[in-house]
Amino acid sequence: MITLFGLKFRYNKVMTKYKINNSDFYNFIVGIRSYFDKNATTIHKARNELKVIHYNDVDTIVKSFKIPHLLNRLIYSFFRDTKAKKSYKNSLKIIQFVPKPIGYIEFYDFWLLKKSYFISEKFDFDFTIREPLLDNTFKDRENILRAFARFTLRLHNSGIFHKDYSPGNILIKKTKKEYIFKVVDINRMEFKQLSQRNRAKGFAKLWANDDLLKIIADEYALHYNVDKKFKNQVLYFSNKNRKIKNIKKRLKGQPVND
Ligand SMILES: Nc1ncnc2c1ncn2[C@@H]1O[C@H](COP(=O)(O)OP(=O)(O)OP(=O)(O)O)[C@@H](O)[C@H]1O
Ligand SMILES: [Mg+2]
Fold first, then answer.
1. With a threshold of 0.85, does the pTM exceed it?
2. Cys-Cys with 123: which of 99, 146, 178, 209 at CB 3.0–4.6 Å?
3. Which ligand ends up closest to the CA of 43?
4. Long-range residue pairs from 193-196, CB within 8 A, at least 24 positions apart, any chain
5. pLDDT digits (tens, 9 = 90+) for 162-187
6. Ligand 1 contact via 123 beta carbon (within 6 Å)
7. Cβ atoms of residues 12 and 109 within 8 Å
């Protein structure tokens, strides 16, 4: 701790900070930069980059977070948990709903955050919720949506509000018996008791059409005591989200498809 202008600042002289769930992965995590750089199997690259890396007989997913701009580097270095750390901490809190976390590591340059990585086990999913939402010929579509509603209800009943509950973040594996769901992109979550409005808001980022949302809301209401406003609330929050996002897209000159 150092004191400047009467304010206390947290700092750490060491150049890395990490937590690892399983000591078998120690060498992997402390050496993650070279494993990441020499490995070519990128599975996703937008703001952040994700790679599948095989280590200790496990397929891991390594998420490398983009280097933040200077102000955020300061904020993340001294005041706020990094996205990698939050992803790890949140995963441990909601362990049954996420791919198994392995660890995270942060690299600092003169006390300023440079890069951070979050490592989890690869979840062998068959599709994300995006496919059944968009493809009206998707096999077993209605059952998948209903299973998805029940999964979301379990999340909600555990006091979990995923702030980025969008289609690409909901992974689904089909087994002989059932559909298994896991969520990713878990650095932004709230833990609280959810009101009916919060629960309805939970479906707003799916970009699903009203008919599909009605099926989801219907299944949810079969298993949880909501009043008759619930279905309309689900539609209301989803359409509100769509309108706001579309206005933002128009302002940025991006194409708007719906
Ligand atoms: N543990 C995992 N197992 C299998 N696939 C994963 C796993 N983690 C991530 N993925 C895949 O990588 C994709 C992107 O991951 P994630 O959503 O965490 O990153 P992102 O969308 O780029 O994040 P951000 O929005 O912060 O840039 C997911 O949609 C999923 O397909
Ligand atoms: Mg995502």
1. yes
2. 99
3. 1
4. 193/159, 194/156, 194/159, 194/161, 196/226, 196/227, 196/229, 196/230, 196/233
5. 999 999 999 999 999 999 999 999 99
6. yes
7. no
